[in-house]
Design a protein that fits this description.
The chain is built from 28 helices and 29 strands. It is α/β, with parallel strands linked by helices. Helix 14 runs parallel beside helix 15 and helix 26 packs across helix 27.
Length: 782
């Protein structure tokens, strides 16, 4: 076997964090953290606090050479400062001793987001004092563990802690203030610098920090990193790169904030919080930079785009979705961006040693009696390791690689539904079960390399040949049929094990009639022309494939095709059906639901039924668009509706109507058929009927673009004489002159919700509809 080897001494391991696995939140004097408060109650997580010995043994069995864990600040200092809780220090000493005894090198992170709640109440990270408290805490921990732990990381992903915690408020402490976010970022940097000094003073051998990296790319660059950029796109990319990366890299490694970021900080937070001497304190010599990489950030310039609260100063930058495979988080899978990143860091910060301290993926796992065959996770890690290796060959200085993460755990605001572990955890029993990815990783570590060509997957035939039985016999054994003798069964299972055979859909379905196939049914032609549909299809497919399903795309365009689809479901050739948008008078959803095959719909069904669906909040979106027109002084507003047999059209009209009625105004409707030409015609008609019309709301962007053309033809200036708002935010909307104000529907979130809904249905859980909020994107046309 040819092996793609890693450098000798390459460090292999896993990463975890205290809050996500420990539990024991009230044990032995631990104080509350901001995450206890945010999560609204104690979290048992993986109960690692009581089971750490088992977990260390598990890591030893898997051959891990290194383990990065985090120390829980409120376990050491329940009040954040002052009185030390000796029991907390004892716990980490026991953990580290167990690791050392198992031959595993500890890498300790001091801050992985669990700030003591007491410090939050005194101002938290936006307050300078928190950085000083951190330095004291660092000294206390290093004093106790410095003889056992060689490598220390001060903070983990300060961008996330500052901007997701204080900007968008999605993470604890849940604040939404750009000023707080920038101040928190500075104080996290200062904490790093003061903490690094405290660690050195306590004799720490190595000091580093861990940052999150999302190489910033335009959609076109995802497939071609060298693609030249327009000036506008280059500016958008640089702005996000400064916020997420250089805001932390440059102070730490160069002793200065990036020049292009300073005005942004000043605009949002002033610069009063940056004291003389801070940058010198922050720029401590760094032995190792921890690189966390999951996915790129995909952006492009888009005039009028409002700033994302997690990225203050990002106005005019659109965070885009791209048609690539995604994990269950919806994160695009772009392994080569890891080598791009490692090469960049080595080039721009020469001499710096790097370590990939987090990389891994959330996929929907299926637990089967013979294990958890998480092929997608294996594939994800393998591809990223290949990318890492190629950057090393090109000279990047990378010490090692740590998978995120050892155990399925508590994924912050997302709770327990995310599965990043190499090891499955049953949260009812706390039973740990290594997934295939754990065993595969153990082999990678053992040989310090990857097998050159991914091994060909053994098939039913290979197993049959090895066990000297027929295909049908293998299939029966795999499906747990009782008709096979115990001897034959054990021979077959032995062959399955030796070959690492993962039963495929065909093998399973032969007997169980479970096909693991899902039909994606598209109504055409109308919906095929809808620019949203290909994106939804792409994402739903990738997510369901990630969950081990095969996808059959079926087109519902004729009465005969409807019959065929229903027969397909009746014959149980599919386990589930996703039906894209239903129309009024369309009985397909109804007929499919009667087959008993789990069914979910994209779009609210025309008649209320028990079939669960995912939809954007069309009515609220239309109301927001109308209210925007009203708030800017428009009173004579026409509305261009789509075909009235579409449920989305009805909902958008209803939202518009409600807003107009609240303002005591009358509705002036015209109908289009979702095409540009129909929008031109409808707008022409509205303007002909009411020459003093001052605004048009079109329930679809293509019709809105048609309305822009009609306005121009009628000599009306947009927006001065006539304001125009669309719906859907299709790509072309930002490219019109003037750029179109519109309502954006959350395409990827809809796809994610749809995939999740179907998976819950397949597991037999009852589900309720999901209605996702839309967002008004104000550009120039209104
Ligand atoms: C990183 C965090 C880690 C985990 C992974 C999925 O941003 O450092 O705790 O949540 O993402």
């Amino acid at each position: 076997m040819n092996i793609a080897r890693f450098p000798e001494g390459f460090v292999w391991g896993v990463s975890t964090s205290a809050f996500q696995i420990e539990g024991g939140t009230a044990a032995d004097g631990r104080g509350p953290s901001i995450w206890d408060a945010f999560a609204g109650g104690p979290a048992d997580a993986c109960d690692h606090y009581h089971r750490y010995r088992d977990d260390v043994r598990l890591m030893k069995d898997l051959g891990m050479a290194a383990y990065r864990f985090s120390v829980s600040w409120p376990r050491i200092l329940p009040e954040g400062a002052g009185k030390v809780n000796a029991a907390g220090l004892d716990f980490y000493q026991r953990l580290v001793d167990a690791l050392l005894e198992a031959g595993i090198t500890p890498y300790a992170t001091l801050y992985h987001w669990d700030l003591p709640q007491a410090l939050e109440e005194r101002g938290g990270w936006p307050s300078r004092d928190t950085a000083r408290c951190f330095a004291d805490y660092a000294a206390i921990v290093a004093d106790r563990l410095g003889d056992r732990v060689g490598t220390w990381f001060t903070v983990n992903e300060p961008w996330v802690a500052a901007f997701v915690g204080h900007g968008s408020g999605v993470h604890a402490p849940g604040r939404r203030s750009a000023a707080d976010a920038f101040r928190a970022a500075h104080h996290l940097l200062l904490a790093h610098g003061l903490g690094a000094q405290a660690l050195r003073a306590a004799g720490a051998a190595e000091v580093g920090a861990v940052l999150n990296f999302s190489p910033v790319l335009t959609p076109a660059q995802v497939g071609d990193f060298d693609r030249p950029l327009s000036e506008e796109d280059a500016e958008a990319v640089a702005r996000i790169d400064a916020l997420v990366h250089r805001q932390f890299l440059d102070p730490m490694l160069r002793g200065a904030y990036p020049a292009d970021l300073l005005p942004v900080i000043e605009e949002h937070a002033g610069l009063g919080h940056v004291h003389d001497g801070d940058l010198a304190d922050i720029a401590q010599p760094l032995d190792l930079l921890g690189v966390n990489y999951y996915a790129p950030a995909v952006v492009q310039a888009q005039p009028g785009e409002p700033a994302d609260p997690a990225y203050p100063g990002s106005a005019g930058v659109l965070f885009s979705t791209i048609p690539t495979a995604v994990t269950a988080m919806g994160w695009p899978i772009v392994p080569n961006a890891l080598s791009l990143l490692l090469r960049r860091l080595s080039r721009e910060y020469p001499g710096l040693e790097l370590m990939v301290t987090e990389n891994g993926a959330d996929f929907v796992d299926t637990v089967t009696p013979d294990g958890i065959h998480d092929v997608d996770r294996v594939h994800f890690v393998e591809e990223h390791l290949r990318a890492l290796r190629s950057s090393v060959e090109e000279g990047a200085n990378v010490r090692g690689y740590l998978v995120w993460t050892l155990l399925d755990n508590l994924e912050w605001a997302d709770g327990y539904r995310r599965k990043f572990g190499l090891v499955h955890v049953d949260f009812d029993t706390q039973r740990r079960r290594p997934k295939d990815s754990a065993l595969w990783y153990r082999d990678v570590i053992r040989r310090n390399g990857l097998t050159e060509a991914p091994p060909r997957r053994p098939t039913l035939e290979t197993v049959a040949a090895r066990a000297r039985v027929s295909r049908a016999t293998v299939s029966r054994v795999v499906n747990g049929e009782a008709s096979v003798s115990p001897e034959v069964r054990s021979t077959v299972l032995q062959a399955v094990k030796e070959l690492g055979y993962v039963p495929n859909a065909a093998a399973r379905s032969l007997v169980t009639r479970r096909t693991d196939t899902v039909a994606l049914v598209l109504s055409v032609p109308r919906h095929a022309a809808d620019p949203m549909v290909p994106a939804v299809v792409q994402y739903v497919t990738s997510l369901l494939e990630g969950a081990g399903k095969q996808i059959t795309l079926m087109l519902a365009d004729t009465a005969e095709s409807h019959r065929r689809i229903v027969r397909h479901a009746e014959a149980r050739l599919v386990d589930g059906v996703v039906l894209l948008p239903p129309e009024r008078g369309d009985t397909l959803a109804e007929r499919l639901s009667r087959t008993g095959v789990p069914l979910v719909l994209l779009g609210r069904p025309p008649v209320s039924s028990l079939v669960p669906y995912v939809d954007a909040d069309n009515a609220a979106g239309a109301a927001a668009a109308t209210e925007h027109l009203l708030a800017t002084g428009r009173r004579r507003i026409g509305v261009i509706c789509g075909p009235m047999d579409l449920v989305a059209t009805q909902d958008r009209l209803a939202g518009h109507r409600a807003a107009m009625e609240r303002a005591g105004l009358r509705v002036r409707p015209a109908i289009g058929d979702l095409t540009r030409a129909s929008g031109t015609a409808a707008a022409g008609q509205l303007l002909g009927d009411a020459p003093d019309l001052d605004a048009i709301f079109a329930a679809d962007d293509r019709m809105a673009i048609g309305a822009l053309l009609a306005a121009r033809a009628a000599g009306r200036r947009v927006p001065d004489d006539l304001a125009i708002v669309g719906f859907d935010d299709i790509d072309a909307a930002s490219a019109t002159t003037p750029a179109l104000t519109t309502v954006r529907v959350p395409v990827t979130e809809q796809a994610l919700a749809l995939a999740r809904l179907l998976l819950s249905r397949l597991e037999g859980r009852s589900t309720t509809p999901v209605v996702l909020p839309t967002r008004l994107v104000v550009r120039e046309s209104a």
